[in-house]
Design a protein that fits this description.
single chain; mainly alpha; 5 helices
């Protein structure tokens, strides 16, 4: 019973919704923000916000899932039907 519930949650909640181009763009933005923070081009509160955004971009790119995409119904990756054709 527990396996079925956790398996259902994993497949429904964390289903990939990001394509490879989207992930690449997010990583490039994260690296750019990191460089700007390191070079003190961005400092203070904006640097903290940029750092949090960078971390979120890298993490979502690693798992191919963006919670905001899920909320708004956005999907930038191919679906299973598209892969089979």
């Amino acid at each position: 019973m527990i396996y079925n519930v956790t398996n259902k949650l994993n497949t429904d909640i964390m289903k990939a919704n990001m394509g490879s181009i989207d992930k690449t763009i997010r990583v490039i933005i994260a690296i750019t923000l990191g460089i700007l923070i390191y070079a003190n081009v961005i400092s203070g509160i904006p640097a903290i916000v940029a750092g949090i955004v960078s971390i979120a971009f890298v993490l979502t790119s690693m798992v191919s899932f963006c919670p905001l995409y899920k909320i708004f119904g956005i999907r930038t990756c191919k679906t299973q039907k598209q892969n089979q054709q």
